[in-house]
Every structure is written in C-alpha cells, then in structure tokens.
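Teaching assistant here, posting this on the class forum so everyone can see the example we discussed in section. The complex has two components, and the goal was to see what a joint structure prediction looks like when all of them are supplied at once.
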Amino acid sequence: MDDGRSRVVIEGVSPEIDGGRFPIKRTVGERVVVEADAYTDGHDAISLVLLYRHDGEETWSETPMTPLVNDRWRGEFQVYELGRVCYTLVGWVDRFKTWTRDLRKRLDAGQDVQVDLLIGVQIIEESATRAPEIDARPMLAVASALRDNEQGAAERVFSPELTWLMDRYAVRHFEIRYDRELRVTVDPAIARFSTWYELFPRSASPEFGRHGTFRDVVAQLPEIAAMGFDVLYLPPIHPIGRSFRKGPNNTTTAEPGDPGSPWAIGAEEGGHKDTLPELGTLDDFSSLVSSAREHGLELAMDIAFQAAPDHPYVKEHRTWFRERPDGTIQYAENPPKKYQDIYPFDFESDDWRAMWDELKDVFIFWCQRGVRVFRVDNPHTKAFPFWEWCIAEVKSEYPDAIFLSEAFTRPKVMYRLAKVGFTQSYTYFTWRNTSSELREYLTELTQTEVAEYFRPNFWPNTPDILPEYLQFGGRPAFLTRLILAATLTANYGIYGSVYEALEATPLAPGREEYWESEKYEIRHWPLEPRQRMREVITIVNRIRRDNPALQSNESLTFHNVDNDQIIAYSKTTDDGANLILTVVNLDPHHVQSGWVELPLDAFGIEPSQSFQVHDLLGGGRYMWNGTHNYVEIDPHAMPGQIFQIRRHMKREHDFDYFM
Amino acid sequence: MDDGRSRVVIEGVSPEIDGGRFPIKRTVGERVVVEADAYTDGHDAISLVLLYRHDGEETWSETPMTPLVNDRWRGEFQVYELGRVCYTLVGWVDRFKTWTRDLRKRLDAGQDVQVDLLIGVQIIEESATRAPEIDARPMLAVASALRDNEQGAAERVFSPELTWLMDRYAVRHFEIRYDRELRVTVDPAIARFSTWYELFPRSASPEFGRHGTFRDVVAQLPEIAAMGFDVLYLPPIHPIGRSFRKGPNNTTTAEPGDPGSPWAIGAEEGGHKDTLPELGTLDDFSSLVSSAREHGLELAMDIAFQAAPDHPYVKEHRTWFRERPDGTIQYAENPPKKYQDIYPFDFESDDWRAMWDELKDVFIFWCQRGVRVFRVDNPHTKAFPFWEWCIAEVKSEYPDAIFLSEAFTRPKVMYRLAKVGFTQSYTYFTWRNTSSELREYLTELTQTEVAEYFRPNFWPNTPDILPEYLQFGGRPAFLTRLILAATLTANYGIYGSVYEALEATPLAPGREEYWESEKYEIRHWPLEPRQRMREVITIVNRIRRDNPALQSNESLTFHNVDNDQIIAYSKTTDDGANLILTVVNLDPHHVQSGWVELPLDAFGIEPSQSFQVHDLLGGGRYMWNGTHNYVEIDPHAMPGQIFQIRRHMKREHDFDYFM
C-alpha cells in the first residue's frame, strides 16, 4: 500500500495522447500549455506545479499551475531545444494556503483566533527549517509575532513577502506525482511553418530533349527561393528498375529510352543509397543540398521503401521479400490490380531486424550527406512499429530531421502515422472544396487533440492527383486552391511546374492522374507561360513570411458568411498583434458577394470604431465598421483577399494639427 | 525490442475509464458492449476478438469483434456473476481472410489464380495442424483440391464450413494483445434499479411522545413494501453524543430530553458498532434486517465517519483526530462556521493504517449482521484512497454490498467517488427544475462516459434539503418531483414521511432546512393525512416494477415539446418491447399544453399508422398519429403522464368477423 495519506487527485491532464503513449509535438520556442483536473477531499486548499525537463537533463524545472474554474488548473512552459522534453505534475494539500484562507474568514467574522494563530506558527516554523537563514529570519519573525499574538500580527500573514516565502519553502506533505511522464517532441521551426516546391530533376534541363541533372536544379534555385519557398522536394533520385518498366502514361510496355517511374527503385547501378547516373553523382547531389541551403532551401528527399525487381536488395536479401509458392517474388498488388515493377518489403520477414536496420540506414546515409527533410512515400503500407522505431532512431542522431508522411488513406491510419513519429502529413485537403467541407476538416485538424500530434501539409496537387476542381475551374481554381492551402495551414506545397503551367488534362475523363505525367516521362517546362502564376505565388509566400499569424494553425477561426460560395477565416498571433483575415470565393466561375460576420470582441475592436482592412494580395484598403462587412470577389481577377486587419485607425486627435 | 512484426494497432477502446485506471460498472445479467479502433498497415484483413474472464477464473472466454465503419469494431459479452470481470482485446493480421478476399476479386476479374491457390493451400494446411483430426480432415480436403486445381475447388474456399473452421483454428501470427486489462465491477441488480424509502426510526412510534424503536419500524414494513419500495434507509442508529448536543431546529443548546442529531455519533454507550439503546438492541436490529428482507426490503444503514466528543474512539484513539496547539481536539469547521459536536477523523494521522482497518471493520461488522446496503454520509470529506481501498476490501468479502455516496459537492469530486468504488450517488437533481436544466444534466449522466461508472440516485428531498420548488409549489410540485425522480433514473428515493405529509416549511425564509427537522427532534406522523400521497407513490412504483424500460438509464431520450413548461422523454428496453413515454408539466400552478414530437422511426412505428398511448398513471388511453401529438396537463389533477406506447393497434382484419 502506498501512503494512503496522499489525498490530492490529479487527472484529466491535457495534452496527453492515448494516456501518454505518444508524445505531443512542438517546435523550438513554442509554448506547451498544460491543463489538469486537481482537487482533494473536503475543503483543504491544494497547490499544483508543472514539472518539465529535457531528455538530457537530470533535474526538473518547475512552474506553478493556477486554478481556473471547476477544479481545472493551467500552467505552461516553453521548449527551447530540439529533442525530447518530458512533463508531469505534482500536487499536495497546502497547509499554509488552507490556513490563511480560513484565517481570513475567521478574522472577518470577528472570531477569537488565538489557537488558530498557534497553528500558523507550526506551519511557518516547519517551512522555515527548509529555508536558508536569510529567508528563514523573516518567516520566524512572523511566527514569533503570531505566538505572542502581537498587535497586527495576524495581518502580517497575508503579506506578499510571507506568501512568496511560504510558497517557495512549502513543505509538500504527502505530495502526489501524476503517474505518467508525458513527452514533447521538439522539432525545428520548419516542422511548423514550411513552404514546399516539388520538381522532377529529370525535367529540369533548360534544353528540350536532354535529361535534367542535379546541376540543372542548382541553376533553378535562385528563382525557386525568390518565389518564397523553403523546401525543395525531389521525387526519388535513385537508379530506376528495368524489368516491367512503365512507359508514358503508365503503359505497361516501355520503349527503349523511356525513363520509367522514379518510384521503381533499384537497378544494376544501385539502390536506395545511390543516385541515378543521368542525374549526377553523389557529389553532385551533395552540392545541390548545400547550394539549396545557401538559398534558404532545405532539400527534401523522397524515401520510397520498395524495390524494383532488379534492385540489389532482391539478390542480396531475398528473405526481405515474400516468396510465392512458384518460387517467384510477390510483386505489389491491390487485387485485381498488379504492379509487377514493384516488390514490397515483407515486414513479417524472419530477418526483419536486419531489414529494419538497413532501412533506417538509408535515412542515416542521406542525413550524413546533409539532408534533413524526408517525404516518405506510402508509409501506411509499412508496419507502424517500424516507423516508431526508425524515426526515433534517426531523430536521436539528427533531432532536426523531419518526416512528411505521404499517406492518403483512412483517417485513423493517417493519425497513427503522426503519433508514431511523422512530423507532417499529407491530408484530404486535395478533395475538400466546399465551405462546409473545409470548415469541418480544418476544425478537426486545428481545434481538437489532433492538432497536438498531426501537422497538416496542404497540397492542391501532386504528381498522382489532379483534382477535378482544377480540371474544370481554370486559372481561378488554381489561384483559389493556392490561397486556401497557403493560408489555412502553415505548411503547404505545390507540385510546381504543372501548377504554374495550369496543367489540367487528366489521363482520361473521370481520372485524377495527369496526362503525360512526369512520373513516366521527361517533360520540358518553358518559363514564359508560367511567369504570371509565379508572380502570384511569390506574393502569397511573401505574405506568409511577413505575417506570423499565418505561421501556425491553432488560432484558425472560421467566420460566417451569408453566401456558401465564400469562405472566411482568420488567424492571429498569441499576442494578437498580427491578425489576418482571408476571404475566398470558392466558385471559380462567377462573381460572388456576401456579408462577412466578424467577432469584433475577439479581435479587440470596439464595435463603434472603424477599422482598416488591407488586402495584402490585391493591394486594396477598405474601411470597415461593425460586425458585418460586405465583400465582392471576382474570381477572374483574384479569387481571394488576404486582409491584414489594422485595429486602430488614426483619428483627428492623433495628428499634430488637431492640437 | 518486442517482435516488430506485430502489425495490428488496437486503440480508442471504450468503455475505458481514465486509461483503465478505474472499472466500469454493470449489474448481474447486463451486457458490456466494447468498441475499439483496430487496423493494420497496408491492405491486409485483420481479426479482432474480445477476451473476458471473472476474477476467479484462469482462462479467458473469447468472442469475436465485428467491424463497423472507419476501422471501428464492436463486440459484447454478458456478466453473470458478482465481483470483478476483466476484459481486453487481441488482434492479428488474418491471412486466410486476406487471401479469400483477394481471391474473390481475382476470380471475378477472371485472372489465372493457380499460384494463389497454392498460397491458400499453405494457409489452410497450417491451420489444420491446430485442429483435431475430425476438423482437420475437411480442411485438408479443400487444400488438396486446391493443390490439384480441381474443377470448382476455388469456390469451396468460400463455403461456410471452411470459413468456420479457419476462424476456429486461425493461426494468429504476430498477434497483438491490447496493453491494458480493463475491469468491470459486477453489482447486484439492486445497484441498477432500486426504490428507497427513508425514515427516522425514533419517529416510528405509533404513540405520540414515545421514542420509536426498531420494532416500531418492523410494524411499518408491510405498508412500506406495499408502496413498492425495496430499500428502507435509516439515518444513523448509534448512540448519540451528549457534549455540544444540538437542540430542536439546530439550536446549539439542547434541553434535557432532547434527542440530538443521529449524525453526532458516539457516547458512553458505544460508537459505530453499537445501537442507540432507545431504538433497541443489536438483536432487535438484526430482526429488523431479516424482517425487512422477508418483505422484499433491503435495510440501508447510514455510515457517517465522524465522532461526537464522547465517542469511545476519542479516548481510545486520540491520534485519529487532529490536536490543536491548546491540546483540544479539532472539531469540524467550515470557517467561520463551527460544528463543535463533531470531530472529523484526521486522514493524515500517523496511525492511518489502524484507522483505515477499524473504519472498514465498521462495514464488515454490519455486513455480518445482514446489512448489504450502505448510505455513506459526506464521503467527500474523507480521503479518496481510503474509499478505494475500503470499498474493494468490503466487496471482496461481500460482493453484493452496495454503497450510496451522499456527496453534494463539486462535479469532479462526485464523479471521483463513483470511480473509486461508490455504487450509486446522490445528484444535483434536487436543484434541477427546468426543462433545459433537466435535459442537460440527464444527458451528461446517461449519454456520456459518466454512465459507465456513476449511477445516479434521484431524491426530491432529504432531511437536509427542502428545495424551493417544493416550498412554493404545493402538492403538484411534490407529485412532479416524484414522477420525475421515478422515471428519469432507475434509482430514486424519498424522505418518506415528510414527503407524504407535503411538509414544506423551511427553517427560515430563504433556507433549505426543514422547520422542526427530525434531525433534531422526534416527530410523530399520523397516517391519515399522508394516505392520498401514498396512493400515488404506490402507483408510480408499480409502474416502475411492471416496466423494465424504467429499470435502467441508458435508453433515456428527450423529445421536443413546443412549450418549455412541459418535458417529455422516453425509455425503452434493449429489445424495444417495452416503451415508456413520460410527459410532465413542470409548472405546478397552471394548466400547460403543447405538441410533443416523437421519433416514430426509432420507436418502430409506421408514420401512417395510429398507435395507442396508455397513461399508466391517470389511466387514460389515447389514439395518437404522426410525429406531433397534443398533450394538456392540469397539475392540480396530476402533473404528469406515464404512457406505455402500444405500437400495433388492432385493425379490422385482426378480428375473426372480418374474415
């Protein structure tokens, strides 16, 4: 039996994922606000403190929790260092707090408190034994005055000085420690706020018909950086298999010279730790990584754990793949579909430990070559325990590494991948087009527990997905989805060249794949037709950089509009200083107008006061007044407005000449 | 590292209280419906089973879980024995299920499945090694037919027989067991459905001026049982302290002959294991317990852990109480109020183990004398760890013991008491009068996780609480609160004599205490003025007994009424056979009418079909039709209607003469 006299209850702690089974996520400099229910039997007052420490530290730091209502308490700390931080809670029945609270009531009721003062003497003297002499002396002075029932002694009990000392040297009789240590994964800032640009390096050549190279990508870095991106993501750069190689438009017969899909990884030239010779050498790649960093761009590699039939692993580690009864290796399938150019790893292999080590080593290999950002292909088709182990291992060596989960699958699977360690994730944004769809989905992502561990990264398109909205909406649709992605979540990306070129031709009617997809052939992207779109992208990304409100998600709030074709939402910083309201016309065909309802109270705007909204995208400045304000948006001009709200308009007495 | 090949995830299990820290509650014969999220990576099919066993059993019983939507699974079991039942979950990637599912698709697509059939052979043969010969033989026959690719062999894979056998002898490769064992406390049926009657035995004498006795209570048993009660609750029956004894109306000076408050426990004659001599001997009490049981009544004792200054504990165990610096013992306080007639136990006493043992022994002592129902006074002023230990100890010897928590305090404290073991609890019902208050509170109690561990027991009044609604509402108010208590929750009780007598005089205006409360004096209750109320109580309790829908809470559903003064709600049994609709006029002064909106779909009534509602309280029968039906209620006649809904009205072709 524990000490049965530990009477404080601590429960209902948040954030706490699955009973503490998984860490929450923060980035360097962010706050962790912790709440808990805490109380004891009877009427005694309690104290509660929040403990936290970095994995590398021996001692805990401590900060007080303060009571809210209904036995709920709140406290917070900040995380400053990459890695793991733990937190937990300690509470105790606080004799001094109880005694002073009751003494106040007794004094107010004019009762004889002589014996009560002596109780206080005991409490204060006990605490004084824990204090160095310099602090003990004033404590003992009050105790002595109480013992002698000196004139005014009782009132000295309530002095801020004694309160502070008694708090500092509180004897925590029968303290309770919350029975779980909860964890925070502290990531670099780019985990929270990042802007991704995807390109196929083999299409990067400025000359039509030549295979692009890492050097060609280096040449594009200045303009990509100038558009405001900070992550440059390349599809797999490894040797591409030759057996069952796919031809253009995903045909099953490749002609000589067809480059194949970069996701069919591995050939005689090597596998996951090698580069496709046509792209360049490992050294060329390392130069690209460092050049990119010089331009403020992190290079994101695509890690796709699967093997083409001619991958060296297939010969060297045949037991990592599943054998069929006829002696062949099991290719990827989604019956009745067959993907004979791809062998999945068998995560039930007897040799799983060696396989895990090797797959982890792939990340380490590229980390050693300077890569810190990984976009992981289809992580939901590999075992969760592998990811939990692998990501933890990589981050223990490279705590600044981040992992984007490319999972488009069932919701619980996507969330699980985030729980086991993925830093960011693809989302359903790609298929959420209407106002109610977006509101519902974003509310789930940003206003529920999900926000503690799942960081959405919004992509309007990917090489696999050309959504119907883009197929039929023309340029306004591309702008709308860009603005939504860039302002709804702090992490977003575009599959650049085709987006800029407004490519909207599907493989076939009703299909979401691109016609002449870069996945299966080399494309050439002349700059001129893309220039107009690039200008808008540049402005949007500059707005994101200039406005910290857009660099996190937790403040996202939707506002009612009396027209369902228009969506309106705001984001703000913790201190409220930066406040951005985005209004988007979701109808790519028609002008739409409506009245946007704003929570002036929450915005800190007096109802009677005019305020200015400055459209950072279009440049317009409007004087608004009251809770309802009119917007009218022509999608063919610009389908969205990103307003910076200026609360305090200058008035006549703000100017010298008024005096 | 565990086996990293265990790929199934089990999470989001419900019911699960605070991560499994506390048990859920059921009564003998009830179902436990368990849900969980379960899934694996990729496309493999999984199986999930629910395991459960009684604390006394070595082996687990098993029942399959079935998938709902969105990776949610459900299964259930029933509990048949008092005590503790554990449950947990096991899941695995199911190779046979995956294989048959894929085979179906391949066959439908007309693919060559020869190699796939050989995979099936391996799976079936592996399972067959686990089966006795009689079951293995048909399995191996299918395997052999598949190996030889016999005509129609593939279709035999889908036979119910093979499905059943493969399920039974499934090889659970890399099975995952949920990492928590969750618990159910199985209580007797009376924990779920009980009807309480409270009386002060000292007022039970039929002769004015004589102190009532246990024998007087025995004489009243037939009429109390006839009213339909099954628990008879007596305030404390122990010797009453003499120091600082309270006089009538809670005055601080008792005159000689004043009996004092029964909650001031302990005097020279004894303490918590003794009876007040005026009430009778221990033997008289035992006779009362057994006579009550013969009448279908459980006797509920009041256990109030506190001592009058003359309690024997105070001399024998002075360290169980807190000493003040002047050498006196700390009396109960809620500053500035002082209760000098009561010493609270000090749950921080150095001798707490001995104190815990003795307090537990009080329950055991009365259990040995036949008592199984305890109403515990102010449990929230004693340490939670004590209750958790004490109740578990008592129930390990007497698993049919039940504990009603008399806590009127902050919500989280009340819920915690239920979590640590209290079987039932007093509630805020006493102060919830309006339709929206009742809906909100009852929804929390019956439709959230709270229902898994907190069993409300509704009391319209107690010796401490004469709510304002009863003070000003007259007889209609008493009837309204009776009907609400009796039909909203399966457990309810009344403080009988004063309720029947419609006593409504407070100690002073604005106070909730009774004038001339039985807590401080002996009262005499002539039967005649109470008879009319008793008749209604008898009918209400008979309705509760006859209608199983009213004997549990989980089906409670509120229905909209276009008049806020009227509240309407229904309850039904699991099979829907018994369906009760209660409609109450909450305005004790005026006739109110309105349209009640019913969910005919959920009720299983065709919209076009008439149905009969039979008011079991007033006797009326009405033909209703459609979703909206009219009610009009005169509170001076009867403020509520308790309708039994008869779905199927006889029509002409139900009668012989129609043929």
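For the discussion questions: Chain A touches chain B through 60 residues (CB under 8 Å). The CA atoms of residues 308 and 342 of chain A lie 5 Å apart. Think about how each of these relates to the inputs above.
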